[in-house]
Amino acid sequence: MHHQSPPGTAPGLRPTGATPPSVLNLNAYLMYATGKAARRRLSDTLTAHGLRLWHLTILAMLDDAGPLSKGDLASRLDMNQSDLTRTVNDLDSAGYVACARDPADRRRIEVALTPAGRHALGRLDSEVAAVETDLLAPLTHEERDRFAALLLRVHTHLERDRAGDGLTAAEPRRR
Question: How far apart are CA 70 and CA 76, in angstroms?
Fold first, then answer.
């Protein structure tokens, strides 16, 4: 059986890792394995600050979109409501977000980024960037830009599928 060279390798070159070459021909596997490694490295960085990836994601979402209800956050992040509530409670306890009941609808709880949360995001920027730089070290700057553009295109496509289910993505707030 003839196997194609894995993407990113020259014909005839075999990867030196333990992963079989035929598995390396599966883009879904490559996305999974790369994502898993990226998540692990980013999680290690965030754990040093007492945070998890969902904490960072919620802080970034609130920084971009402004205050949102817990329901809106859960929908936009495609996150289970109880997991979101637990994560928001962590951020509230840390002083990174403030939660307030909507006077017009007492069932609705609005979550807003605090100055301490904005400061925490700023502190994390360079560390998150360093993790990304390390992950993408094999790529040139041009390849990194192209890779980011391709990932964004795939993500946008998948979000359109989600939007067809009645869910919408957050629109970045202009600063």
Answer: 10
Tokens describing residue 82:
């109880």
Bridge partners (DSSP) listed for residue 99: 111
Say which amino acid occupies 88.
V
Residues in the chain: 175
**Tens digit of pLDDT for each residue in 31-81?**
999 999 999 999 999 999 999 999 999 999 999 999 999 999 999 998 999
Task: Check: CB of residue 136 under 8 Å from CB of residue 147.
Answer: yes
CB atoms within 10 A of CB 74: 20
SS3 content of the chain, % helix, strand, coil (to 5): 60, 10, 30
- The residue with tokens 């560390």 is 127
Q: What is the rounded distance in angstroms from the CA atom of residue 76 to the CA atom of residue 32?
A: 22
Which residues lie below 8 Å from residue 3, measured CB to CB, with a gap of 6+? 21, 22, 25
| Distance separating alpha carbons of residues 98 and 95, to the nearest angstrom | 7
Q: Any idea what DSSP says for residue 158?
A: H
Bigger pLDDT: 73 vs 162: 73
Contact 123, 130 (CB under 8 A): no
pTM of the model: 0.76
116's CB contacts (< 8 A; 6+ apart) are: 94, 95, 96
Per the CB < 8 A criterion, the answer to whether 143 and 150 are in contact is no
